[in-house]
Fold these 2 entries.
Entry 1:
Amino acid sequence: MNRRSFLQGMAGLASVSQLPLLRALGAVPPTAASPGFRFVDVTSSSGIQFQHNSGAFGGKFLPETLGSGCAFLDYDRDGWQDILLINGMDWPGHKQRRSTLRLYHNNGNGSFTDVTSRAGLDIEMYGMGVAVGDYDNDGFPDILVTCVGQNRLFHNTGKGTFVDVTNSSGLGKRLGFSTSALWFDYDRDGLLDLFICNYVKWSPEHDVFCSLDGKHKSYCTPEAYRGETCWLFHNRGNGTFEDVTASSGIFDSSSKSLGVAMLNKDKDQSGWPDLLVANDTQPNKLYRNQRNGTFKDAAVEVGLAFSSEGKARAGMGVDVADFENSGRSGVAITNFDNEMMGLYLFGGRTSEDVAAQAGVGLASKNSLGFGCVFLDSNLDGWLDLAVANGHIDETVRTFVATWDTPSHLCCFSTMAKEVFGTSPRKLAADSNSQRWDAD
Ligand SMILES: [Ca+2]
Ligand SMILES: [Ca+2]
Ligand SMILES: [Ca+2]
């Protein structure tokens, strides 16, 4: 069943008043055991006032269903992690307000100050994601913002400001619907290269009419659009990048990519990094680094491309970590509702999806997952998994009881021991983790 037929199927079910059946089938939030700690929302008390603008005006443009990313970065190198929040903007012809990304400086006392204008980032763009990396090795982190339209590269001057170097760096004159991006040094020359995920071929002029009821417009699933290749840019070391998408073997115009994560086989991160790309309604990719500037997709052989039923799921977010503390990598990939998350463990040349055994499968089946991250939320030495859930279309509210799905925090501490039978081995507290309040 594809996403559209699922949504239409749900519409059909609801039209014969079977919502109680949906609830009985498990479309209710799973009960959560107390993790033994609490998160407290300090957004407003810390001085952060941010509202995301998707530009939605009723036209139901596809990019409104995604976005947007954010990053912790210490842009001024004062030892305190600052916050960057990416934003969209109003669509052409429907301009009502100005909205930009926001950079918040960490004051070191639990509060933040909006320094967007001061930093030179008060620029409108339809932002989607962000990747932070020091591409010129001057010690100051630089910012790549993925966009609908033209992606933007901002060089950190080291004086609290940024300069848009998109065109001079060679990243200009490329319009797309970019989503996630990753800085990584695939050829190990000491210079960060740039991988950018693209979703589908879409523009306001080529928007497709999709409808759940045959009358009113709804958001299309990606199946309505052709895919688009991801991009790989090699860092030349002189402030410019070379597009090596084709020569590196990355080119694939069938992909509809939303998430990317680096997979490093060596624990000390000194190896040749591979890439994992989560694709929406298309097979996921595992780009194996051939150590000669090229990559080879091994997702099908390894068993990451499809679900265990052989279906391409709606891959969204992806994260990689050794969540077993066993020395082997694990991968989490979020998917659409009515699809479980993928939770893969590598063993030899293949991987196994252990989502169901690990308790993540059923817990995630009725929710639509977007971003996900492994984190040790209670510092017990075991990585937990946090998943941001949502939905793409408020029309679904009528049909699906889990429209307002809460985000998931799945505690793997218990699972690793009980399900995988591994002996508890504590990880040292990660001094490099991004703790903004330094406690
Ligand atoms: Ca700082
Ligand atoms: Ca830099
Ligand atoms: Ca490099």
Entry 2:
Amino acid sequence: MEHLHVKRLRAYIHDDIAPEERSNIEAHLDDCPDCFMEYLGLIDQWEPDLSLSEDFTDKTMEQWQTQAPKKHVRPSMTRKQTLLHYGVAAGLTIILMSTGVFQHMIEWTGKHDEPSGMPLTEKIMNSTNAWLDEMKEREGNE
Ligand SMILES: [Zn+2]
């Protein structure tokens, strides 16, 4: 399998690619933990360019609005929902990475002998959920 070039990932993050290219990249990110980590790293480095037009912000907001609050989930929505979840997990991951909690979670996940075929994204999701549960418990104890 050919890995994604960093330039393509950047273009993807900047939403600067053709729709079919976008789905190719998303399919690869789903399958390839290496490129997914690379992608997370790039998001981490990425700071919104303040010189970007307002149109960009509008477009982004529009995407969130069309993707987020849908009650009637058609089968074709499932994939988008999944990607949205990945997006949320990715956001949390970045926060956790920068605070060092992520490292702790990876170690923690490693101790729990999960099926080795589990995709990294799922591991991150599980770790994130476990972390959130832990936070809730702590709140409850106080
Ligand atoms: Zn790859």
